Amino acid sequence: MTQIFVRTGIHFADADAALQHIGAEMLAKGVVHASYPQALLEREAIFPTGIDLEHHAVAIPHCEALHAKTPAIYLIRPDKPVHFQRADDDGEIPVTLIIALIVENPQAQLELLKRLFSELQNPEVMERLLTAPPAQLGELFRNTLLEPQLSAAS
């Protein structure tokens, strides 16, 4: 079962500060190996993860599965947008939601990324993720994006 961690209202000077925070937090939670924080920074430098959507922008930082101990997702709604490099282009975009993926299975990571790209294109889904009370954000993410087929069946 994927653990979901949520943090809202936190301030980051820039994307590097956000990535360093993610690395330290996930290490402290015990879901990643000691190699994870550096691997996350290195991967973001080579393959930026900022995605410009219709009304908002998200970043989906992640790194190779070998740095993960157990599947987790860290959702961060910063107090103000954080500028991340665009994944598809040069330049930066102001990100209002950071979705850090810790996946131990490369195939599962690919499937999850595809689902996120697809679902996050829906402005209603994004709006709900950005406005949900912090206490409900993890459950909303799990039911909408992570395990939609499970919640639909129940």
UniProtKB/TrEMBL annotation:
Q: Does the keyword Transferase apply?
A: yes
Write the record's keywords in alphabetical order, separated by commas.
Transferase
What EC number(s) does its UniProt record assign? 2.7.1.200
The record places domain PTS EIIA type-2 at: 1-144
- What are the top taxonomic ranks of the organism? Bacteria, Pseudomonadati, Pseudomonadota, Gammaproteobacteria, Enterobacterales
Example of a GO MF term: transferase activity
Q: What Gene3D superfamilies does this protein map onto? A: Mannitol-specific EII, Chain A
Gene that this sequence comes from: gatA
Q: Which Pfam families match?
A: PTS_EIIA_2 (PF00359)
Official protein name in the record: PTS galactitol transporter subunit IIA
Top-tier EC class? transferase
